[in-house]
Model the fold of this input.
Amino acid sequence: MPTTKDLDAKYYMPAFGRNMEIVRGKGSHVWDSTGNKYLDLVAGIAVCSTGHCHPAVTAAICKQAQMLIHCSNLYYVPGQAELAAKLSKASELGKVFFSNSGAEANDAAIKLAIRHTGRHEFVSFEHDFHGRTVGSLACTHKPAIREPFEPLGVPCKFSPYGDLEALKSVVTKKTAAVIFEPIQGETGVIIPPEDFIPGIRDICDDAGALMVCDEVQTGMGRTGKWFAFQHSSVKPDIISFAKGVASGIPMGGIIARDGLEFTAGEHGSTFAGGPIACAAGLATFDVIKSALPRVAAKGERFRSGLAGLNPRARGLMVGFTAGEKAPAIADYCREHGLLINVAGGVNVRLVPPLIIENREIDQAVGIINEAADSV
Done:
């Protein structure tokens, strides 16, 4: 009888490097196919914001699945307008358009920027990650995953992250938008200077370019506010979101300020904002709303517990630099019942469920510190 590993090797394209099978999850824990239990600080890479199989989210999905699984966007979709209203109010921006992923959301933002400005050039930042579709990949810096597929059709310049003077030199009257991560996630939780986001706003305004904030990883309460840009004094023109919005049901989207919107025929999607995704999103929103007031304190608990490792933290988005020891630290943690993630090759990234409990944080901190001392 072939194993999952055997079937995967024979029939699935080898795009991912993986060595374990997770078969069950509850709260902040998961179990693998051999029965081992893990405290999960990866959470689907910041996706499982409400933990695994939160009862309110599971009930909402099951209830909707018994009524209507799919409905074309030719019609009003159950829950779609209601979720859009909640996201619009939480972001204090304007209208929403749903997608199925963060990469699709960033593609939509790119299209909307071109449509609104009539310009076709973009600026992003070194080590920013915006997705792997053709449009989003064009604005993703990592040469190893971008250059093999060039030309990608969306001209994009890359500026050093956090450097406003460098940004001024590349944003011109031909720039449609500057697209950026308010905290770089895939690189390992890199937090920019406090004046960075307001500075991007000023530079965009001077050039007549749009400001597009990629909140795919930082949004939905991850940093202690609904969206990370809300830690600053300015608002972007467009934000993208995904990951934590529906507790693991595929969903993403954009929210744009008043006056920026797609009109009939300019954009679309068969599956985006479907009934089950919206049901999950509505339930997730309520759970996050309840958890949000405690996210900052939980992040500080991680920061304090890991103080010897000089962590970077904004809410429950935590990282520290471990150099070449990072993979060994992750291996040690897994062997001791804790899942963490290596980002950027040398950084450890922690993006646990927002509902993680203090005793679980303390347990995780103890294992991580042991790992850092041991390897």
Observations:
- Residues 58-290 form a domain with the Aspartate Aminotransferase; domain 2 fold (CATH 3.40.640.10).
